[in-house]
From TrEMBL:
Biological source species: Rhizophora mucronata (Asiatic mangrove)
Keywords per UniProt: Ion transport, Membrane, Potassium, Potassium transport, Transmembrane, Transmembrane helix, Transport
Family label: Belongs to the HAK/KUP transporter (TC 2.A.72.3) family.
Listed transmembrane segments: 12-31, 51-68, 141-168, 180-200, 207-231, 257-276, 288-308, 328-355, 376-398, 410-433, 440-459, 465-483
Protein's name according to its UniProt entry: Potassium transporter
Length: 777
């Protein structure tokens, strides 16, 4: 009983918190839905049945799409508690061979988060559609492009939502002051938009506790206003809950009613957020919040506005504020502006999330992703995207100057995202849930059919600023495609030009060069083989480090990889070579909280040391394998207990068990002095905690194990260097004109103007070695 009570409290707490994150966009739609619906030729129909029919359409649209599709169904299609377009795509990739991600390994399928509970695809007959998609590579490309289209529309929504929400809330000033020039409304809107994005930059965690109360008060405010209007103006409005009024509506207005659906669909904008940001909450808490608070409050508000308009049709251009009683006007205006700001920041944060996921899957240029421990869960910040969104918001606000024009573009973007979600969800029903193809087809016909009707109606509004969403999404889509195309060509080039292991073995344990003290981390996109970066380094320079670790940082199609399963470590070559391979696996939603290179070095060293001892305990072979199997070393019960570890604040020189007398650094005294000066002047080093490692006095069956561990500790003391390729990519001279245009112009432009790999991986410049390479793809 006590446990059930605690679970209910937890659900209610999450439901309360979800108001400030999930429902701001959906709850501000009453500001502009009726205005956008009656902006065309439908404004010539001045009768009660038209108003009742419009409200009936709104009621059933919210019921079918927001309540049934998203609240009841889509919240069940989560990927380990995460939602969104990429969650659906990841589910499909794990249950069907349609992934285009490089470096996929069989070991990835052993992750604890790889197989969803109750939906394992093992020992299950695949459907004909699944076999068809797996056989044809072009269909896999089509699915990826469909996912990218949805992602681009989400970014477009991140541009349009702040503009339409804040502009529609500020327009209420013109109801009280008839002489207020519309240009002043635009100026006020722009000032608020700038303040919104500056707040994003400074960190919304300082005021995040206010978001849920603001949205709840706003919902109660519009519900009370709706009840007042129903009682005061037209109590018969409840008759319009019958779908019969939809029939009467279309019978009376004909084609004009179909065109008006482009405004009706705005009542469900924001429903996708319930599913996209599910990871911060639970499905039950979101359902409670929407079904018992948001849904009834919205219905009461739309019903009240319809009752008011049925007696005051001339007030359509400002229907929301005109329906508010005079005594409540100013409090409502303030609450509307605050609710619009909350809705806008939530959508901007969701845009950061979708960009991060695109970047993780190799479909977006490298950006700086900021995540701090003091921030609220799942909150990230991308400076470049924040300022780009701000500029685009200001441009579309000043350029359109009208809520109706913004609504035309906004509706196309939102309904496109919904339609893409429907397609992917119908595939999930068949591939992941293993339901019959007919069930998935019925789902698509019902919800997809409704969305196609709304989409075709909204396309009529393309000449009236609807082209804005198409233009923005086309630009983002082109950028993502070019980046994915160029990155894949580079990966295939690396894959084709990797060095055979026989060549490495022919060089001997010293690799044909002088082995100097220290650890060299060779960053590569390859999960197997020797990258050309390494051989190019050996060819041009006569020395390399005593210990070599090939590091591959890759994304697997799961939302999160548990920390203890993040590192895959193995040996590369015979033991005498002192070469290892480490694959760092991240989920598409994983964000490391500004992990410093010191923490990464320590984790990596402990993982390699654990692998050395596990290998000795398991096989005891002396020479080792040529390319040994990888192991998830952190699952070992002895991990972290092999060394005596103590903290040493800011004392790098004395952080290891070996003494400077026995182990010399590979860096010259001048370079060591520069490094010390760099660490003293850099703020990220001021509070850094250095760890001191000491090998425990443990007896080993194989004396070579202790020798190898001591060499590892000595190399760690000598210093760690990061070796990365600095590539120049050009299309081959005999390539087609289109390929040369994409690679030489557009992809080259994106590479030059995005963050470098060292910045995105948080690698210190003082320890970085770049190896120049020319790629002809």
């Amino acid at each position: 009983m006590a446990e059930n009570r605690s679970q209910r409290r937890h659900v209610l707490l999450l439901a309360y918190q979800s108001f400030g994150v999930l429902f701001g966009e959906l709850s501000t739609s009453p500001l502009y839905v009726y205005k956008s619906t009656f902006c065309g030729r439908l404004s010539h129909y001045h009768n009660e049945d038209t108003i009742f029919g419009a409200f009936s359409l709104i009621f059933w649209t919210i019921t079918f799409l927001s309540l049934l599709k998203y609240s009841l169904f889509m919240l069940s299609t989560d990927d380990n508690g995460e939602g969104g377009i990429f969650a659906l795509y990841a589910l499909l990739c794990r249950n069907a061979k349609i992934s285009l991600l490089p470096n996929q390994q069989a070991a990835d399928e052993e992750l604890s988060t790889y197989h969803s509970l109750g939906h394992s695809n093992r020992n299950t007959l695949s459907s004909p559609l699944k076999r068809f998609l797996e056989r044809h590579k072009k269909t896999r490309t089509v699915i990826l492009l469909l996912v990218l289209l949805g992602a681009c529309m989400v970014v477009t929504i991140g541009v349009l939502t702040p503009a339409i929400s804040i502009l529609s809330s500020v327009e209420g000033l013109q109801v009280q002051d008839k002489n207020l020039h519309h240009g002043m409304v635009i100026v006020i809107t722009c000032i608020l938009l700038i303040g919104l994005f500056i707040l994003q930059h400074r960190g919304i965690h300082r005021v995040a506790f206010l978001f849920a109360p603001i949205v709840i008060l706003w919902l109660l405010c519009i519900a009370i206003a709706g009840i007042y209007n129903i009682i005061h103006w037209n109590p018969k409005i409840y008759w319009a809950l019958s779908p019969h009024y939809i029939y009467k509506f279309f019978k009376a207005v004909g084609k004009d009613g179909w065109i008006s659906l482009g405004g009706i669909l705005l009542c469900v904008t924001g429903s996708e957020v319930m599913f996209a940001d599910l990871g911060q909450f639970t499905a039950s808490s979101v359902r409670v919040a929407f079904s018992f608070v948001v849904y009834p409050c919205l219905i009461l508000q739309y019903m009240g506005q319809a009752a008011f308009l049925s007696k005051n049709f001339s007030a359509v251009p400002m229907s929301f504020y005109s329906s508010i009683p005079d005594s409540l006007f100013w409090p409502t205006l303030v609450m509307a502006t605050l609710a619009a700001s909350v809705a806008s920041q939530a959508v901007v944060a969701a845009t950061f999330s979708i960009v991060k996921q695109c970047h993780a899957l190799g479909c977006f240029p490298r950006v700086k992703i900021v995540r701090k421990a003091i921030w609220i869960d799942h909150q990230i910040f991308i400076p470049e995207i924040n300022w780009i969104l701000m500029v685009l918001c200001l441009v579309v606000t000043v350029g359109s100057r009208d809520t109706n024009r913004l609504g035309n573009a906004y509706g196309i973007a939102c309904m496109t995202v919904m339609f893409v979600t429907t397609i992917l969800a119908s595939l999930v029903i068949n591939f992941v849930w293993h339901k019959s193809l007919l069930v998935g087809l019925l789902y698509f016909i019902f919800f997809g059919g409704l969305e196609i009707i709304f989409l075709t109606s909204s396309f009529v509004r393309i000449p009236k600023a609807g082209w804005i969403s198409l233009l923005l999404s086309a630009v983002f889509m082109f950028m993502m495609y070019v980046w994915h195309y160029g990155s894949r060509k580079k990966y295939l080039y690396d894959q084709h030009n990797k060095v055979p292991m026989k060549w490495m073995l022919s060089l001997g344990s010293d690799l044909g060069v002088v082995r100097i003290p220290g650890i060299g981390l060779i960053y590569t996109e390859l999960a197997s083989g020797v990258p050309s970066t390494f051989t190019h380094f050996l060819t041009d320079l006569p020395a390399f480090y005593q210990v070599i670790v090939f590091v591959c940082v890759k994304t697997v199609p799961v939302p999160h990889v548990p920390q203890k399963e993040r590192y895959l470590v193995g040996r590369f070559g015979p033991k005498s070579y002192r070469m290892y391979r480490c694959i760092v696996r991240n989920g598409y939603k994983d964000v490391q909280e500004n992990e410093s290179e010191c923490e990464f070095e320590n984790d990596l060293m402990m993982s390699v040391a654990e692998f050395i001892q596990l290998e000795a305990e398991g096989s005891g072979t002396v020479d080792g394998s040529v390319d040994g199997r990888l192991a998830v070393v952190r699952t070992s019960g002895k991990f972290g207990k092999r060394f005596e570890v103590s903290e040493s604040d800011g004392i790098r020189e004395n952080s290891y068990s070996s003494s400077p007398a026995t182990v010399s650094s590979s860096k010259s005294p001048a370079l060591q002095g520069l490094q010390t000066m760099y660490e003293q002047e850099s703020p990220q080093f001021s509070n850094k905690r250095w760890l001191r490692f000491k090998l425990l006095d443990t007896s080993y069956n194989d004396p070579q194990v202790k020798e190898e561990l001591m060499e590892l500790l000595d190399a760690k003391y000598a210093g760690v260097a990061y070796v990365m390729g600095h590539s120049y990519i050009k299309a081959k001279w005999n390539s087609t004109f289109l390929k040369r245009l994409l690679i030489n112009i557009f992809f080259s432009f994106l590479r030059k103007n995005c963050r470098s790999p060292a910045v995105s991986l948080n690698i210190p410049r003082i320890s970085l070695i770049k190896v120049g390479l020319n790629y002809f793809v």
